[in-house]
Amino acid sequence: MTGTPSGQLFRTVTGTDLVLVRTFRAPIEDVWASVTEPDRTARWFGRWEGDAGPGRTIRLQMAFEEGTPWTELRIESCEAPRHLAVSATDESGGWRIELVLTETAGTTELRFTHHLDSEVHVGEIGPGWEYYLDLLVAAGTDAVAGTDALMAAGTATPRVDFGDYYPAMKPYFEELRTRRT
């Protein structure tokens, strides 16, 4: 689906932010639903369950990872339809993610930020987020509509192939570590 990585690294007072932006020809409420409603997140990331709300923890199944593992995700902030911040901890360490949505004339921009504890693994992390955000874009198109049931049954695959992202995008993200922003 894509061949050009778009992520950028920004140094902050507390570390480094990996930022990726996607634009949707859709109202902000529709994009917000795609990143917060379990039936919509299942299309591009995974389904989740639990009692969602700021300060609460939900369970998320990563549908496009090997073994479709479940992970716990803490909702740090949720200000519909503009801001969502979540965190998780796994064997790789801590994950702090923010989504900021803005709408202008029916077009919504999604600014995705992964607050990195370290830049060491950005060569793997960056392509992964490019892949997932392109899955989100693909999930919002009519061409993919109706595939949810097929994907749930394991008889369809997403139009976005991780093999197109990794390892091809790894050098781009590793080079970002040497740039100063």
Helical percentage: 25-40%
Mean pLDDT: 88
**Which word captures the global form?**
globular
Q: Low-confidence spans: pLDDT under 50, at least 5 residues? A: 141-157
Query: Between the first and last Cα atoms, what is the distance in angstroms?
Result: 28 Å
Largest sheet, strands/sense/barrel = 8 strands, antiparallel
For the largest sheet, list the strands in their spatial order. 1-2-8-7-6-5-4-3
Count of DSSP helices?
A: 5
Question: What's the β-strand tally?
Answer: 8
Rg from C-alpha positions?
16 Å
Order of helices and strands: EEHHEEEEEEHHH
Which structural class is indicated by helix and strand composition?
Answer: alpha+beta
Strand content: 25-35%
Walkthrough of the structure:
- The structure is a single chain.
- Helix content is 25%, strand content 33%.
- It is of the alpha+beta class and 181 residues long.
Question: How is the secondary structure organized here?
Answer:
Elements: E1 8-11, E2 16-24, H1 28-36, H2 38-44, E3 48-49, E4 57-61, E5 70-79, E6 83-90, E7 93-104, E8 107-116, H3 122-139, H4 148-152, H5 170-176
Antiparallel strand pairs: 1-2, 2-8, 3-4, 4-5, 5-6, 6-7, 7-8
